[in-house]
Amino acid sequence: MIWICFAIFLGACFAAGSTGGLFPPGAWYRDLRKPRWTPPNWLFPVAWSMLYLCMAAAGARVAVSADNALAMALWSLQIALNGLWTPVFFGLRRMRLGLGVLCALWLSVAATCAALWQVDWIAGVLFLPYLGWVSVAAALNFSVLRLNPDQAEGSTAGPA
């Protein structure tokens, strides 16, 4: 049963992640000013693939456990917010709104981590790298917004 749950959670993760293919960064993002500490482009798909595996494993572990309602509700919220950021930031080119989505995502990931931990501490630990990565993503979003104030509200939105 846990493998079926894992496959379902992994499907949810990759559905959220598929927005990256629908709204790729493109020339608009490449041409923005970014901080020196911006991770290299190749790291993003590698990191997200590993994170999605951990997220799916955490969800599957808790899905088959008792008293999991809050953890599962929060898991659902965080994956919805996860899937929302890319269309907002890259699709609409709304950096400020993207930062708002990332702040909500960070809060939901932290709450999910805590709720998972209450049910299964291993599941909680599996969410810690995700919380770290979302922290980096929020700092990067904030820095790009600060370095490109003229681009903050999607004033140049159009086809990628």
- Span of the ends, CA to CA: 42 Å
Poorly predicted ranges: none
Secondary-structure class:
mainly alpha
Give me the number of helical elements: 7
Computed over alpha carbons, the radius of gyration is: 16 Å
Mean pLDDT over the full residue set: 94
Sheet with the most strands, sense and barrel status = none
Order of helices and strands: HHHHHHH
Morphology: elongated
Task: Give a count of the beta strands, DSSP E runs of length 2 or more.
Answer: 0
Give the topology, please.
Layout: H1 2-17, H2 19-22, H3 26-30, H4 43-63, H5 69-91, H6 95-119, H7 121-147
Describe the structure in your own words.
Helix content is 76%, strand content 0%. The model has no long low-confidence stretch (mean pLDDT 94). It is elongated, with a radius of gyration of 16 Å. The protein has helices at 2-17, 19-22, 26-30, 43-63, 69-91, 95-119, 121-147. It is an all-alpha fold. Helix 1 (2-17) packs antiparallel against helix 4 (43-63), helix 1 runs parallel beside helix 5 and helix 6 packs antiparallel against helix 7 (121-147).
Task: List its salient traits.
single chain; 160 residues; mainly alpha; 0% strand; elongated
Q: Can you summarize this structure?
A:
This protein has seven helices and no strands. With 160 residues, it is mainly α. Helix 4 runs antiparallel to helix 7.
